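User: Some background: our group keeps a shared notebook of sequences we're curious about, and every so often someone picks one and asks for a predicted structure to add to the entry. Today it's my turn. The entry only has the sequence so far, pasted here. Could you supply the structure so I can complete it?
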Amino acid sequence: MLLDTASLYYRAYFGVPDSVKAPDGTPVNAVRGLLDMIGRLVQDHRPDDLVACMDADWRPHWRVELIPSYKAHRVAEEVPAGPDVEETPDTLAPQVPIIEAALDAFGIARVGAAGYEADDVIGTLATRAVGPVDIVTGDRDLYQLVDDARGRRVLYPVKGVGTLQVTDEAVLREKYGVDGPGYADLALLRGDPSDGLPGVPGIGEKTAAKLLDAYGDLAGILAAVEDPKSGLTPTQRRRLDEARPYLAVAPKVVRVATDVPLPEFDAALPKAPAQPGMVDALAHRWGLGGAVSRLSACLRR
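Assistant: Of course. Here's the predicted structure to add to the notebook entry:
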């Protein structure tokens, strides 16, 4: 099981009231919410391995070089040596180090790689895996990794993690008319304002799905642009032709990396907290006794 950690703690932050605070008044709603999410996932799915995948760089320079608008609207402060500082709610940013300390204390593998997003870590670990993989994320971009033949699916939180949409190829075809790899092509064609991806003007999700159904993939669509006998409308042909510079670089930006150099780590789901003293100290310092007890109990089952 691979956790898109930032995606989940953002959901926890907005899903758990900010009245949940430490004894000193520091909000810990994201911390408590994430620990409870992980406990519920362990209880319901009992994975052999569990990895909390992290954003070592939420806006990698190599992606920005290709598409400068990539996540540009979310930059709070540019850092020449990188990574840039992301706009984060004032009461969430201080909780991230607590989350990291808690994961370490429990012995839950926490993995990132310099110059890469958590999505790329997930893509690499999913590609390396020899057995089934569940990816837990609130980010639809990772639908591109769905692969029935390899047992890869996305567990997408609909309401907390108690209600998860189990996303396999059948769900993707029903909702979007594509398979996993096709979702990446769909996303780059339609664009994504939340990630600063412009897409092809005039090509929305439904049109993108129809083009992919007709021509197979992005390469097939571009071949159809060159073929005067293809079924593209004149407007579609013009728009796709004008978007060639974008379409030449968008695949590398949109598709997750699958060959990220990762540090050595132990992915095994711990059967008990690795550092019980540290877990107790964090529970006392931040008023997390209930969440810590619940997660500890789930690990021991």
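Suggested note for the entry: The longest strand covers residues 152-159. The chain has a mean pLDDT of 95.
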